[in-house]
Fold this protein.
Amino acid sequence: MIKLVNLLVRADDLTHEAFVDYWYDEHVPLASELPHAKKYATSVPSDPERSEYDGVVELYFEDMGDLKAAFDSEVGKEVQADLAEFAKPDEGPTLYVEETVQFDDTASPDVDVEER
């Protein structure tokens, strides 16, 4: 499983609250349509005044091929263009990682957690 992690910085003309409103009300529904995406998680800081970033997005794909296909699609191109409406895409770091769950007390009983 490949996870794209992007730390978001809001556009200069938006407050943190306006950034979050646009992200959740406009962008999330669009990004939820990305083909091949297995999971989409968003996080916002509980104390934005003390945070360097305005949010964290995590997108999960089976492999890098699926990730590439998702962002090469029409929806993927729309998602990338829309990101620039409320954030500065090149300001925050982006990571492409393979997640290894060490433990997960929040998982339902039927979720497999990797054995050591």
About this structure: The two ends are 17 Å apart (CA to CA). The mean pLDDT is 92.
